[in-house]
Design a protein that fits this description.
about 120 residues; 3-stranded antiparallel sheet; globular
Amino acid sequence: MAEWNDVDWEEKTVSVRFKPELGFKPKDYEERVIAVSDTLLACLKRFRGDAPEDALVFPSPITGTVDKHLDRIIHSLVDKANRAGYQVKKPRKPCHAFRVLYATRRLSSAKISSKL
């Protein structure tokens, strides 16, 4: 759960830290700083608009917090896949699982592209 004040534009990093007011704890309870690419920073700058420092980077459009509706949609899709004969395990945190999958695929794609 990133807020705009977690982005350090100069150092080109994003901080992952506890946010008790939002009920967020970092994975393994470890706060950390993650380096990000110039491309991602440029996209974030365009996306940000006039959002305040303490606003979430990717809020729910309805509540401004985590979108639980998307979790229900993902669980429904997993159920449908399992009924169709696929073996799909339901993630405990569907939105997080898909963000991780997306980030992993993007990183893998970037590594392949840089080798070409």
